[in-house]
């Protein structure tokens, strides 16, 4: 008995010590986080604004990657709007003498790089230099770096300049072979998200839209690179087709780079440009630190609010991606905030749940009744991402935004054949005719298919209805450019799916003008989580495990896994784009 009490007492003491250690660690985390946030950055004379590998350009505060217990990830995240403002400010900042682009693998979308390129082009009008350096350079990084006055490449490096492509994987034979049934219901011949389950090759309609889209995006991108590097367009096509950029000597020969030098030589070259002595330090300041040097902690006065919506659209509550319950709260808060005189809704989404999209659209329509609502498109504004834009007074799209995809689908997997082959079967007892209209083992009943089809068709008609109201076109006109087809922003403007081609800043200026504001502050929503909030969020077991899996298999693969394993996602009618396109 004495031994028993000793063990109990020892366990109690261990628990107390563990709690005390955790409490101390918790307090230390808060203190260190606060210290990190209060750290001031001073911009020294003869500084060079540097866009490097340690900067992630993100479209929304919800995209920021953080480590466990709120610790920052290895790379700092910078909002695109803040990055553009920083480059604009650096143009007239006497302490900033130039820009150095040192990003081999830039973490940014195509429209984000477009905006950064435009901002740097404008910066060059100040007469300050812009140099770029690369080692093993991705296509997206070279697209940005090619805007520089001079591009320098490592003698053992290379540039992956190859053009755009997409690869579609098909699962029909796999499903047939292993007895997996997939019931597909869709509206729109271009709604190709479900094609991998229906066919073994790309349909003519999907091939047409993919070819048109890729050529639109590449024409814009390649023309800008060729113009910046002063390369004839025919020769540039040969350079890309031949992958000459992968060999440094050929990259130099065909004018992709100006000189092959080591990184130390590149830094010395900049020092020489700044007339610095050999022992003087080269002051480089990152975008994130430069923004910290002047950013205001608290904004007062009249505001234009930018509400960022980035990621897939889902029902329920959550911080990352676009969750209907959370965004309804954001929208209502902005609607009731008297200091907010206009709202810009920044959309960067391939869509998702039809129901969640509809909820968000309704709340935006209520907001629009009280104050101007302007929409700005980022990389994606497709399906549900386009649907929620239909409350806008005006829609701005980037030229390379993937736009439209006006279509609806549902995918219902079942496992009857594979179950029967392995000796598994089921019987059903029910109270009503369609109590079990869907079963994982037996699939969907004919009547269930009929009703789901009616639901998909009804959702499509509702989708087109809101588009006709906002775009002031007939059902037939929208249906002709709908059907699930994805367009570039440039073509979307031509066919009337958007009002203007322009940046987020253009949308903000128009919103302020519509609200009659002469002076105003720009405030971003949703707000970044505080360290305290992040710590408790990270303690959620599901979030921790999800983050670990996502880091291991990649974001794109994780989204596929989530679609298969999440029952809520399986049961919904979807407004979602079939693919994503990256310049890498």
Automatic annotation (TrEMBL):
Active site: 191 (proton donor/acceptor), 383 (nucleophile)
Domain Peptidase S49: 123-264, 366-517
Residue intervals passing through the bilayer: 12-35
Keyword annotations of the record: Hydrolase, Membrane, Protease, Serine protease, Transmembrane, Transmembrane helix
Recorded GO CC terms: membrane
Matching InterPro entries: ClpP/crotonase-like_dom_sf, Pept_S49_pIV, Pept_S49_SppA, Peptidase_S49, S49_SppA_67K_type_N, S49_SppA_C
Name of protein: Signal peptide peptidase SppA
Organism in which the protein naturally occurs: Chryseobacterium gallinarum
């Amino acid at each position: 008995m004495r031994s028993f009490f000793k063990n109990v007492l020892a366990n109690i003491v261990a628990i107390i010590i563990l709690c005390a250690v955790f409490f101390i660690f918790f307090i230390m985390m808060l203190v260190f986080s606060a210290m990190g946030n209060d750290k001031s950055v001073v911009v020294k004379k003869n500084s060079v604004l540097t866009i490097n590998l340690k900067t992630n350009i993100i479209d929304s505060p919800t995209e920021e990657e953080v480590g466990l217990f709120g610790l920052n990830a290895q790379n700092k995240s910078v909002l695109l709007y803040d990055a553009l403002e920083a480059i604009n400010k650096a143009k007239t900042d006497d302490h900033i003498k130039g820009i150095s682009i040192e990003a081999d693998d830039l973490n940014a979308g195509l429209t984000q790089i477009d905006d950064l390129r435009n901002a740097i082009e404008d910066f060059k009008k100040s007469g300050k230099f812009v140099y770029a350096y690369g080692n093993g350079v991705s296509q997206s990084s070279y697209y940005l770096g090619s805007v520089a006055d001079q591009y320098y490449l490592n003698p053992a490096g290379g540039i992956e300049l190859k053009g755009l492509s997409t690869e579609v994987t098909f699962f029909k034979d796999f499903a047939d072979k292993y007895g997996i049934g997939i019931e597909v219901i869709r509206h729109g011949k271009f709604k190709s998200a479900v094609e991998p389950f229906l066919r073994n090759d790309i349909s003519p309609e999907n091939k047409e839209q993919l070819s048109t889209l890729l050529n639109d995006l590449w024409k814009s991108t390649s023309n800008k690179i060729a113009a910046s590097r002063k390369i004839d367009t025919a020769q540039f096509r040969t350079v890309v087709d031949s992958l000459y950029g992968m060999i440094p000597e050929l990259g130099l020969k065909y004018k992709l780079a100006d000189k092959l030098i080591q990184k130390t030589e590149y830094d010395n070259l900049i020092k020489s440009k700044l007339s610095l002595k050999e022992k003087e330090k080269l002051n480089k300041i990152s975008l994130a630190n430069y923004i910290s040097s002047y950013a205001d902690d608290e904004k007062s006065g009249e505001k234009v609010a930018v509400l960022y919506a980035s990621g897939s659209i889902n029902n329920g509550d959550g911080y990352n991606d676009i969750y209907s319950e959370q965004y309804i709260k954001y929208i209502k808060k902005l609607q009731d905030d008297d200091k907010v005189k206009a709202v810009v809704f920044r959309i960067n989404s391939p869509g998702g749940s039809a129901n969640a999209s509809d909820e968000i659209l309704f709340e935006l329509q209520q907001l629009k009744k009280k104050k101007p609502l302007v929409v700005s498109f980022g990389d994606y504004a497709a399906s549900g991402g386009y649907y929620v834009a239909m409350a806008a007074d005006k829609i701005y799209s980037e030229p390379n935004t993937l736009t439209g995809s006006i279509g609806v689908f549902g995918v219902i997997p079942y496992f009857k054949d594979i179950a029967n082959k392995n000796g598994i079967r089921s019987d059903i007892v029910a109270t009503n005719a369609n109590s079990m209209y869907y079963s994982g083992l037996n699939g969907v009943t004919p009547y269930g298919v009929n009703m789901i089809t009616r639901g998909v068709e009804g959702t499509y008609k509702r989708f087109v209805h809101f588009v006709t109201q906002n775009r002031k076109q007939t059902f037939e006109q929208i249906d002709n450019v709908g059907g699930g087809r994805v367009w570039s922003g440039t073509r979307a403007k031509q066919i009337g799916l958007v009002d203007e081609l322009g940046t987020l800043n253009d949308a903000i200026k128009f919103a302020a003008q519509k609200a009659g504001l002469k002076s105003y502050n720009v405030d971003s929503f949703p707000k970044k989580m505080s360290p305290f909030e992040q710590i408790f969020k990270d303690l959620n077991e599901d979030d921790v495990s999800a983050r670990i899996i996502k880091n291991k298999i990649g974001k794109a693969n994780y989204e596929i896994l989530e679609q298969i394993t999440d029952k809520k996602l399986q049961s919904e009618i979807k407004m979602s784009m079939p693919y994503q396109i990256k310049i890498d």
